[in-house]
Design a protein that fits this description.
The chain is α+β, with helices and mostly antiparallel strands and 181 residues long. 39% of the residues lie in helices and 25% in strands. The protein has helices at residues 2-22, 31-51, 82-102, 170-177, and strands at residues 54-61, 69-75, 120-125, 141-145, 148-155, 158-169. α2 (31-51) runs antiparallel to α3. The chain is globular, with a radius of gyration of 21 Å.
């Protein structure tokens, strides 16, 4: 009898968990949140495939369902130069912007339509194959935020300190890279 009860409880538990896992959308998300999640997911997957970057985070600034900023973060498995990181930031931000602006349903939730470079943030954590970030003069992180590209190096004497930070505007980065936006 004990074994029968254990088996029944196990089966019920398995069915409960499997039904929970089959729910793909959170019923409490707004339409704007569902659209943002879809855009971020599709963009991250596309960027991963095209540029060999590994998604490690996403986010959004969207108070009251007004989409202000969409954010994607990536890890590398190769230490890239500043020039290569610039190129990746520009290409990734263009891909994310294109996905945002081609989604007609999302347009009504954007703070401004079409979205611009000020409405996206891309961060790249420049790591080697072992997940280690190099020290100055190697770039540890690169990001584009509010239309500014920022490159940071780590202090070899203190793992938690930034040694150097370099910035360039979006226009300067486009000019330096030769990439058409």
């Amino acid at each position: 009898m004990k074994y029968l009860l254990t088996i029944i409880l196990s089966i019920v538990t398995i069915f409960m968990f499997s039904s929970l896992l089959q729910q793909k959308e959170d019923p409490y998300l707004s339409e704007a949140e569902k659209l943002v999640n879809k855009i971020l997911y599709e963009s991250a997957k596309s960027i991963e495939k095209k540029y060999n970057l590994y998604p490690c985070g996403d986010g959004a600034a969207m108070p009251d369902d007004i989409v202000k900023i969409l954010i994607l973060s990536f890890d590398t498995k190769v230490q890239y130069t500043k020039e290569k990181l610039r190129e990746l930031l520009l290409l990734c931000s263009k891909d994310l912007l294109d996905n945002i602006n081609k989604n007609e349903q999302l347009q009504e939730y954007l703070i401004q339509s079409p979205a611009t470079i000020e409405n996206v943030r891309i961060a790249i954590f420049n790591q080697d194959i072992n997940g280690q970030v190099g020290f100055d003069p190697l770039i540890a992180t690169a990001q584009i935020s509010n239309g500014i590209l920022i490159y940071r190096t780590k202090d070899p004497n203190d793992n938690f300190k930034i040694k150097n930070q370099f910035e360039e505007s979006y226009a300067e980065a486009i000019k330096a890279s030769g990439i058409k936006q």
